[in-house]
Amino acid sequence: MTAVWTRKQREYLDKATHRWNIKCGATRSGKTYLDYYAIPRRMRRVAGLDGLTIFLGNTKGTLQRNVIEPMQKIWGAELVGDIRSDNTANIFGERVHCLGADNKKHVDRLRGAGAKYIYGDEIVSWEKEVFEMAKSRLDKPYSKFDGTCNPGAPTHWLKTFIDESGADIYYQQYRIYDNDFLDPEIMTKMEREHAGVFHTRYILGEWCLAEGLVYPMFDAAIHVVPPEARAYEKYWISVDYGHRNATAMLLWGLCGDVYHCVTEYYHSGRDSNQQKTVSQYYAELEKLAGDRKIESVVIDPSASPLIDEIRARGRFIVRKAKNDVVPGISDCCTALSNSLVKFSSTCKNAVREIGLYSWDDKAADDAPIKEDDHCMDAFRYITHTLGWASAKPKSLYT
After folding, report:
1. DSSP string spanning 131-160?
2. Which among 36, 79, 83, 203 could disulfide-bond with 98, CB atoms 3.0 to 4.6 Å apart, if both were Cys?
3. CATH 3.30.70.920 fits 7-202, yes or no
4. DSSP conformation class of 113
5. Among candidate residues 140, 110, 147, the one with its CA nearest the CA of residue 126
6. Where are the alpha helices (DSSP H) in the chain?
């Protein structure tokens, strides 16, 4: 089977002969697509030799979606099997261990086993202990590692390994512009969808600190609108629950292709010196909803008391929020950049928070400052959980 390669991809095929071979850079730059062809070539070279073949991804599910299924479309399900319940797959005649690297417990079963080949997807998202274990498994003279990732902070442990370990590493860095086959219109849309730190990382492919405002693309002249009557098609509520910390509830309505934060409820037990019970918060939720049909209440997954109360009352469908902070913030950036979300001027706390919400430059990893962020958490929960960033605004896509 033949394929046409970009200059960067040809360079990798020619030069990635080291013990560690890592591609890092922009999304949709051709990094992972190349691997669908590079993996079988690498596996053939060590076929029959002693040692395990291991595929590691952020989770087993992302490994199936990002690597296994695309390879099946190219090579067929007979050569590339699905990941089975025992976390193995039959791939090009080899038994391959396919594991999630988000938790070191997932790979503890490989402790003591040597590996002839390891493939790593989304390495920056791994637990460092998993990477250290992978290093210890590459114990054959012919052992090799191929891996790919988007860049993170320059203080990330993987960047330190690449720059300072002295290991036998071939490293490539990709920009989105290195993909000669990406439709220019799609490239323009992706440039528009990524702002701030995410533009630097996912478009330019550079390692950079998350610093300054989390949402530098927020513009009150664009994103804050008067509370006028609109023909909302659907409604949702997002909730960040706190006992002494503030509780924020945001009512959202869809009008055309824009999700409006219509109104808010906000109460801080610490600031007001008045604690509220779970039942009282549920009453505020009912009041916020009014007589509207609410599609679902998207809520902080750790808010068990309020979740139980809402379910016991039986009116609302509860969805526990996806609580991945940085991917959630990335989705919110995309939604703001594409004007998919707007805030009523009556949502004083949400508007105040979004203008001040900043990265914590003292944190070891990417993290926003945990102050005055309750509406921002509620904003992130619903945008990330319901996939609003993947919507296609008419103003950009038609």
Report:
1. HHHHHHH--STT-EEEEEE----TTSHHHH
2. 83
3. no
4. -
5. 147
6. 7-15, 31-45, 60-63, 69-75, 128-137, 157-164, 184-193, 197-202, 220-223, 269-272, 278-289, 304-313, 325-337, 348-356, 374-385, 394-397
Q: Which two tokens stand for residue 28?
A: 């949709």
Cα distance between residue 341 and residue 177, in whole Å: 29
Q: Which residues contact 107 (CB under 8 A, 6 or more apart)?
A: 56, 99, 101, 130, 133, 134
The domains of the chain are located at 7-202, 220-397
Place of tokens 């055309």: 256
Q: Are 220 and 45 in contact (CB under 8 A)?
A: no
Q: What class is the 220-397 domain? A: alpha beta
Query: Contact at 8 Å (CB) between 341 and 350?
Result: no
Residue 240: per-residue pLDDT = 97
What is the pLDDT of the chain when averaged over all its residues?
92
Stretch (H or E) spanning 268: strand 258-268
Residue 397 pLDDT more than 80?
A: no
Q: Are 340 and 315 in contact (CB under 8 A)?
A: no
Task: Work out the percent of the chain whose per-residue pLDDT is above 90.
Answer: 80
Give tens-digit pLDDT for 220-260: 999 999 998 899 999 999 999 987 789 999 999 999 999 99
Contact 156, 209 (CB under 8 A): no
pLDDT band at 318 (very low <50, low <70, confident <90, very high): very high
User: Which residues, listed in sequence order, are joined to residue 334 by a DSSP beta bridge?
Assistant: none
Q: What letters, b where the CB count within 10 A reaches 16 and e where it falls short, cover 201-219?
A: bbbbbbbbebeeebbebbe
Question: Residues 66-89: pLDDT tens digits?
Answer: 999 999 999 999 999 999 999 999
Here the tokens at position 102 are: 């988000």
pLDDT at residue 272 is higher than 80: no
pLDDT digits (tens, 9 = 90+) for 112-162: 789 999 999 999 999 899 999 889 999 999 999 999 999 999 999 999 999
Helical segments of 92-239, H only: 128-137, 157-164, 184-193, 197-202, 220-223
Euclidean distance between CA atoms 256 and 234, whole angstroms = 10
Long-range contacts of 185-194 (CB under 8 A, 24+ apart): 186/28, 189/396, 189/397, 190/27, 190/28, 192/337, 192/338, 192/396, 193/333, 193/334, 193/337, 193/338, 193/389, 194/330, 194/333, 194/334, 194/337
